[in-house]
User: Fold this.
Amino acid sequence: MPLHEENRLFEMLILEGAQAGLSWLTILKKRENYRSAFDGFDCSHVAQYGEGKVQELLANPGIVRNRLKVQAAIQNARAVLAIQRECGSFDSFVWRFVGGRPRQNRFRRQEDLPAQTQASESMSRELRKRGCQFVGPTVCYAFMQAVGMVNDHTVTCYRYRAIKELGMGKAPLK
Assistant:
């Protein structure tokens, strides 16, 4: 589903980065714990975390206790705040990689879905340039799928047409 809420976009960026090397089901089961541990994914709060909060997070069994991923979440919050100042919103920044509208793919089989695309490579490059971590092209493509920037439901999926119609109403970003 196309998503445009700042905190939810930040949440998905952090969860996709946390998922790197793990199954999505692992992260999905921990999602509520992440929301609680990371103050509802409020960038302004997360960006203020210091070493004491890092230690608290690393002791929290409800999230993935990987120091690099925890520190990346904090760094990414700082980078997202900078992006919001520069671009007006994180939403406008990320959606520009698909021209402001969900890309409507037409895959027949799950096996045909790519792991990354030119758009996800561009997004990865731009996010990294702004200081984000755990945002490689594959993570960015998973993010794009999760927030509805690409419609990767197979054409035979019951959700394909509904998602396609949702994406037709949003005007492209300028």
In short: Residues 169-174 have pLDDT under 50 and may be disordered. The longest strand covers residues 103-104. The CA atoms of residues 79 and 131 lie 6 Å apart. The beta strands are 103-104, 150-151.
